[in-house]
Design goal:
The chain has 18 helices and no strands. With 418 residues, the protein is mostly helical. α7 packs antiparallel against α12 and α13 runs antiparallel to α14.
């Protein structure tokens, strides 16, 4: 195993360590914020519909300003953008406990808060993703993305437990304060890192003089040229239809059918989380030469796991199948960001990341709407088997398209780099 893929070896590098601190701070704060936000909504309204409304408000901005965030994160100084966005988010998060103290907090105000924070993060995420290649060598990108993905999975597993424990000790409003501090701390860590690659001033000036439409058209032309990147992004969006059906509709429905208890659902989610974490710590360290194919293999593994989950006769088999199914997740979550960072010009990374996120979110939303429209929650086996077969088909189709692409004359910038 080479040092550049070994997480502990990577953490010996100062820049990697600071970026990891920044990500960890943000992730833990986000987990507390989500718990506090949803709990307050339930406490104030007692309605699950209001909880769904808050979640929708936090995700909708990606469709509205997601691409705009990518365009401007490429134009602006990325460290300054992250600092400003995190400061704004910190202030916004602090408004919740202030309104709570003065008995002015309402469900509409929480919905508005979630939406505005979502808008701000549309500018912060592409700036952060575009910044990573400036702080580490190209051959460290896969390892760093693997490390950050592992951290994300651990935070999602431990965050709810940590938040639940804190709510027993301190008022819920304190969780908002901790989240606000985590935003500031994250910005401090990014500010402390020292870039090893500096973008030429003339490139920034050239980009800033273009119109918004010209910036988007430039990215479209670039992705048309980099066919493997464009195909992988489109495939990701199509695959996410299956993922939304299986994870957000199939898992709760199967847990209710076989276990009929909240603990059954929690343990099935935990089995997914554990499977993804174990896979990350093993497969995630392997060198991924053709990252587009690796992403497609991830689609196929998850799809196969969904099909098998649809045959589970009891919750114990469901836990085992869920654990195995999740082995495909790190292949996608590590390979896709690393491919964008490695294959994309630095001055375009923010826009490409935003386009990828928009396509991915469109797939998730389509899956949820499809599941609701067809009333699939009452048929978990049908959900898993049909979603799994669809994901496998997506994997096979796009692997075929990628293979055809390799037979055509090479026109991408990868040849020039190599």
């Amino acid at each position: 195993m080479k040092d550049r893929y070994h997480y502990l070896k990577l953490l010996k590098e100062r820049n990697v360590r600071l970026l990891w601190y920044s990500t960890t701070s943000n992730l833990l704060g986000d987990q507390l914020h989500e718990i506090a936000l949803l709990w307050l909504v339930l406490q104030m309204s007692g309605s699950g519909n209001h909880v769904a409304l808050v979640m929708l408000a936090s995700r909708t901005p990606l469709f509205i300003v997601g691409l705009m965030g990518g365009v401007y994160s490429d134009r602006w100084n990325k460290i300054r953008t992250i600092t400003i966005v995190n400061t704004i988010c910190s202030v916004l998060v602090l408004t919740a406990p202030v309104l709570y103290i003065f008995n002015m907090l309402t469900v509409p105000s929480l919905v508005s808060l979630a939406a505005v924070i979502g808008i701000a993060r549309c500018f912060g995420f592409p700036a952060y993703s575009g910044l990573i290649p400036d702080f580490v060598e190209k051959n460290r990108l896969q390892g760093l993305n693997g490390l950050l993905d592992t951290t994300k999975r651990v935070a999602r597993s431990m965050g709810p437990a940590w938040g639940g424990t804190l709510t027993k000790i301190v008022p819920v409003a304190v969780l908002f304060v901790i989240d606000a501090l985590s935003y500031l701390l994250s910005a401090v860590f990014v500010k402390a890192a020292k870039p090893i690659h500096v973008e030429p001033a003339e490139e920034t000036t050239k980009t800033s003089k273009k119109s918004f439409a010209e910036d988007l058209f430039e990215v479209w032309q670039y992705i048309k040229k980099e066919k493997s990147l464009g195909l992988t992004m489109i495939g990701f969006g199509l695959y996410n239809v299956a993922y939304a059906l299986g994870y957000w509709i199939g898992i709760p429905s199967l847990s209710k059918m076989l276990g009929n208890s909240p603990s059954a659902y929690s343990y099935l989610i935990a089995s997914f989380g554990l499977g993804g974490l174990i896979a990350n710590l093993t497969i995630g360290k392997w060198k991924m030469t053709n990252k587009s194919v690796v992403v497609c293999i991830g689609f196929a593994i998850v799809g196969s796991g969904f099909v098998i989950l649809g045959t589970a006769s009891n919750m114990y088999w469901a836990y085992a199948f869920g654990f195995c199914c999740a082995f495909g997740l790190p292949l996608m979550d590590i390979a896709m960001p690393a491919k964008i960072q490695e294959d994309t010009k630095r001055e375009m990374i923010g826009r490409v990341f935003s386009l990828w996120r928009t396509l991915a979110e469109a797939g998730l939303t389509t899956g949820l709407l499809l599941g609701s429209f067809l009333n699939l929650a009452n048929h978990p086996r049908v959900v898993f088997i049909s979603a799994g077969i669809y994901a496998i088909c997506v994997a096979l189709v796009f692997m075929g398209l990628l293979k055809l692409r390799t037979k055509t004359p090479e026109t991408s910038t990868e040849r020039n780099v190599q």
